[in-house]
Amino acid sequence: MATKIRLQRHGRKGYAFYQIVVADSRAPRDGKFIERIGSYNPNTNPATVDLKFDRALYWMQVGAQPTDTVRNILSREGVCLKKHLLEGVKKGAFDEAKAEEKFQAWKQTKQAALDAIRTKDADAVKAVKSARLEAEKEVNKVKAEALAQKRAEKAAAEAAKQAEAAAENAENAPAEEAPAQSAE
After folding, report:
1. What is the DSSP string of 7-18?
2. Burial of 136 (0-12, 13-18, 19+ CB in 10 A)
3. Of 88, 107, 177, 182, which is the most exposed, with the fewest CB atoms less than 10 Å away?
């Protein structure tokens, strides 16, 4: 029986996620499978992969053939490298401790690269947010200045009206008071 490691589609239209399964190559895509060894969600950034590393390595060693997409996923997770190193141990190229050392070095390098990408993305998001905040502050400053100018104009107009009314009252008041004083 030819076994394949492949993706089994789940989710709704436009939002698919996948189970990574080991199945007979003749079985339908979403049909019967032998073992579920992980999941893959391409909708997150970066894509989320949850994999049973030991089981995936076991199935690769006993001859299960991964599809192209699954091969890329397994390669990114290090299953293909581990299989390659273990084959080197079988052939006597180096011992198991050296193979494990090489694998751990690769894993640390990979983790450092992922951390750098995440940090870069977080910094980019932070920069965009700070730029938006500065732009919003500038817009608010312009609006505040325009509002202050409008209030100043309104206050000046109100003061002019009051001064005009006071001047008018001042003109009318002495004329009325003068005859009253002469009558006394």
Report:
1. EEEEEETTEEEE
2. exposed
3. 182
| Tokens 């076994």 -> residue | 3
pTM score, whole prediction: 0.67
Does residue 86 belong to any structural domain of this protein?
A: no
pLDDT in tens, 33-82: 999 999 999 998 888 999 999 999 999 999 999 999 999 999 999 999 99
Quickly tell me which residue has 């006597």 as its tokens: 92
Task: From 111, 29, 109, select the one nearest 69 (Cα to Cα).
Answer: 29
Is residue 17 included in any domain, yes or no? yes
Task: Please tell me whether the peptide bond between 42 and the residue prior to it is cis, using omega within 30 degrees of 0.
Answer: no
Interior angle at CA 102, CA 99 and CA 103, nearest 5: 85
3-state DSSP assignment of residue 63: coil
